[in-house]
Design goal:
441 residues, mainly alpha, three-stranded mixed beta sheet, globular, DUF247_pln, transmembrane, transmembrane helix
């Protein structure tokens, strides 16, 4: 539909429908991202590098992958977990009772859980960037939050508290745990933490002493290191945890003592492990509580131990994607990943770190090296959180002695024939001096 408008004796046609459409779009347009957004679709520029690191193998958690064909079979396990939870809660509160009475009580507990999730449906939906799942899915969204949330909470309880049945498919099949340690840390495969908290508190028994944070961190204890530090739940007070992936990130950031924000410093390249070693830098396994706490003192680079396993690439890529997507999340872990990417250039770099017991590598040398080499592609860092470390390393390597040592080692001690030539030259020098001394004598 068009309307006429007279302007300077000219007739201008105005599309009223187009104007109305633009008016609606402009009303909804905003430059800033809502603070509630914390669960995102992986940007295609990151997704293309390793799609398997972002997609669930067996379990969908939340609405983004719900209903996909290869994930449907796991829904039966979730129902089994819900049924077992209802039975345990009812039995704990009432003792011995008839099957009919038990079923009635289970329905009451279930109704209470449904109402609890219903009350936070819109709040939960607001966490998913670019979606309104409450409107799109309706009751199915509530069902998904309930079923997936109960499954996750019960999984943590069973793993830590030992409340598992002998025929539990999760704990009787070794591959299931591997799947879950991958699936539960995916950015697209999350449900809000407050949903888990509500379901946990609603079904918590008097005998349960551990918090949900303790259960979750115990489940993921060996994600970053073979020797995890003691869990301190008090650290997470008032942190407004967003979801499981955010909890794992906070478990690294909060205990960190070395990270210093330097907004004035951009990214500065760091020499590889091999080049640093040529310049006389020594490498030592650090004893810091957080893997992020890398420091350089007295010519020694201390790096806390890192476990490299099948799920390492998954957690690294999803944490990087999370920091890249969420504007309120400083790219601290991304800087850590970029630092490791710079340090590890060849298999020799990886081998040096493994021999120093800094890396506990469960992969092949080639696979682990390639992983770090491809890790940082298409990722951007504006604020570099290791600028002080970078300056110290650069300052050390620019001194005349490390420069001379690096040049000499690189050119004369990297090949067998060169080493042999140096030994021969030293022997000849000694013989010449000795012969001269004899003649004078």
């Amino acid at each position: 539909m068009a309307a006429q408008s007279v302007r300077s004796n000219e007739i201008v046609l105005i599309d009223v429908g187009l104007l109305a459409s633009l008016k609606v779009e402009l009303r909804d347009a905003r430059l800033s991202m809502p603070r509630s957004y914390c669960i995102f679709n992986i940007p295609s520029i990151l997704f293309r590098h390793n799609q398997s690191s972002f997609l669930p193998n067996c379990f969908s958690i939340g609405p983004m992958h719900h209903g996909k064909n290869h994930l449907v079979a796991a829904e039966k396990i979730k129902l089994k977990y819900l049924k077992a939870l209802l039975g345990r809660v009812v039995t704990s509160g009432h003792g011995t009772m008839s099957e009919e009475s038990k079923e009635i009580e289970e329905q009451k507990v279930l109704s209470d859980l449904v109402n609890a999730v219903n009350s936070i449906e819109k709040q939960a939906s607001a966490c998913y960037a670019g979606h309104d799942f409450a409107a799109e899915l309706g009751d199915e969204f509530v069902r998904t939050l309930l079923l997936d949330g109960v499954f996750v909470v019960e999984l943590f309880r069973k793993d830590v508290e030992g409340v598992k049945e002998h025929d539990d498919p999760i704990f009787s099949m070794s591959c299931m745990m591997q799947f879950l340690h991958h699936d539960l840390i995916l950015l697209e495969n999350q449900i809000p933490w407050f949903v888990l908290e509500i379901l946990f508190e609603k079904t918590r028994l008097p005998c349960e002493t551990k918090s949900l944070i303790e259960l979750a961190l115990s489940f993921f204890a060996n994600t970053f290191t073979s020797h995890p530090p003691l869990i301190q739940p008090s650290r997470f007070k008032d942190q407004n945890i967003k979801h499981i992936l955010d909890l794992l990130r906070l478990s690294l950031v909060l205990p960190s003592q070395e990270i210093k924000k330097n907004t004035a410093a951009g990214w500065q390249p760091i020499r590889s492990v091999t080049r640093l070693k040529e310049a006389g830098v020594k490498f030592k396994k650090g004893a810091a509580e957080s893997v992020l706490d890398i420091k350089f003192t007295n010519g020694c680079l201390e790096i806390p131990s890192l476990l490299i396993q099948e799920t390492t690439e998954t957690i690294f890529r999803n944490l990087i994607a999370y920091e890249q997507c969420w504007t309120h999340c400083p790219p601290i872990f991304t800087c850590y990943a970029k630092l490791l990417d710079n340090l590890i250039d060849t298999n020799n770099d990886m081998e040096i770190l493994c021999k120093s017991e800094i890396f506990d590598n469960w992969l092949s040398l080639d696979d682990s090296t390639q992983f770090f080499n491809n890790l940082y592609n298409d990722t951007y860092v504006k604020e570099f959180y290791y600028s002080e470390l970078s300056d110290k390393l650069d300052g050390h390597c620019r001194r005349w002695w490390p420069q001379w040592r690096a040049y000499y080692v690189h050119n004369y001690f990297t090949k067998p024939w060169a080493i042999a030539a140096q030994i021969y030259a030293v022997i000849m020098l000694v013989l010449t001096v000795w012969q001269t001394y004899i003649k004078k004598g």
